[in-house]
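Forum: Protein Structure Q&A
Topic: Joint prediction for protein chains with partners

I've read a bunch of threads here and the consensus seems to be that you should model interacting components together rather than docking separate models afterwards. I'd like to see that in practice. Below is the full input, 636 residues plus whatever partners are listed. Could one of the regulars post the assembled result?
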Amino acid sequence: MTEGVKVVSATVPARQSTAAEARPRNTAAERGSRSPKRKLRAPADKRKNLEILFFVTPALLLIAMFMLVPIIQAVRFSVYNWKGFGPLVDFVGLQNYVRVLQNEVFTDALVHNLVIIAGSIIIQLPLGLAIALLLNRKMKIQGLLRTIIFVPYVLSEVIAGVVWFQLLQPQYGLIDTVLAKLGIQGPAQGWLGTPDLALWTVLIVLTWKYLGLAVILFLAGLQGVPDELYEAAQIDGASWWQIQRKITIPLLGPTLRTWGFLSMVGSLQLFDMVWILTGGGPANSTTTMATFLVSEGTKRQNFGVASAASVILFIVALILAVSYQQFILKRDTQPDTSRKRKKVRR
Amino acid sequence: MSTATTSIKPAMKTKKSQGKYGGNVLVYALSLAVVALTLGPVLYGVLGGFRTNAQLAQAPAALPEPWVLSNYTGVLNNPEFWRYALNSTMIAVLTTVIVVVFGIMAAYPLARYQFRLREPIFMVFVLGLLFPATVAIVPLFILISRDLNLGNTWWGVALPQAAFALPMTIVILRPFLIALPQELEEAAQLDGTSRIGFFWRILLPLSGPGMVTVGVLAFVGSWNAYLLPLLLLQGEMRTLPLGVADFSTEHSADTAGVFAFTTLAMIPALIFFLAMQRRIVSGLQGAVKG
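Posted by a regular:
Agreed with the consensus. Here's the joint model:
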């Protein structure tokens, strides 16, 4: 059936060949295998373009509709004073941006996001690496351990948050009870209720939730390190610690750097866990940029301010992503090491 | 000098052989600690569901004594729980189907056709990775609930979720499709199959594993999603994460009930994860490898 279709489409629109040839540069020429059909090339080209259009359009449309349009709308809303009803008339220029940037709650939220980015990487990198090295030996229960360590990552942040919220209850929660048995008194307002401790408590819960991802990714990276290197190093008399420091960790570099990027992007968008554990409180000590813009947008209907905040969040994310790319990931895009690694992987 | 090296070598060897045949006590002790810290909170929640609130208040760190089933049966007899589970399932299934179908369609020409706009279009999807749903959440909420009138519906959540999952899907699928040998396509052409025929009869069956991977990632992502459903769904239409969060605030005094509800809500994701573990892990690793 497909054969018939093809013949028809290839022979009928012979006249359109000039038009089709004029616009798209003839990439079919690159395909040596198709040279016997050279006469039919131009109509086939048109058909090819239609096929491409057919395959790519649904995905592009969906992204345009639900990603591009809302982002453009966010930029548009951000220059209006708009409470969510009526037309966009009250043009205020950059005033919403000024309001957001002068709002201490937002600037604190930005600082919280940065603390969580730094804290996540500083805590999870060595810990994840240590656990990955620990698990990267041939143990009978290795598979089971890997599964277990990955469980928190698969749970939703909401479920993890609700369980931890109960564990962290002041006095009656498991954690305070255990600490009391050890003779340590938990904070009177609870770990999440004390402004100075709340952000760090959230950070610890996030570590619990996301350490498994780091371990799994690092383990995969470790698998890419050829055994011969270890053997050679052992023959040269290197100690276990020297081998890790001089061979494993440098070769794990690309994995570590990519994980760092993922972790950073995730920390910037942090919302669920904070919303469940503290709702941004106490006294705004755990607000993130995302919780700020959601509460401005939904609780106070300040759509203009919320949109300005989301544009700022995006700009911060973009600056961080580009500088990460420039200063840290750059090494990996240099062809020599990364290409070799890719070959090994497949 | 030479004595030093000779003395190190046997030491290394024993270490390695120990690693091979079971590892030393320290490694197991450390592993056990990691397991306890990882699973502890989850298990505490599961066991807490089998206790009464009085038990929990009296001795928070104890085992159930006696075991109580009423918390769990209470949740299972709660029609709201099943309603939330249905909503979660439907939204996750819709999201997954859209992501997999549109994703493989878009990835096919981007992987196997030669055309001028190939790399620019691929870049559009790569850039899409940079836009989290959070950034556009307020206009997205207005677009869906007012302009499209899809607020409080399954589609209203599934469509944007699929849009935001597509970039990752295509980034994972494209190298997968590129890796399929060119000879297959040439052989199919020689036999007179068109590119569409090649897509249907050869490429789709062969890319099963890749599609399962992206499908699982999309499903788990949708199942766990909170922010978008929080803004778009109310009442009867809420999903399990919303249900769990609301239950825990509404019944904050009923700790055991909260544990039971939370445990039952996490079971589907856990089962799904255990069944699809390989796929999730390989998908995430593929994403990191880029």
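Residues 2-69 of chain A form one domain.
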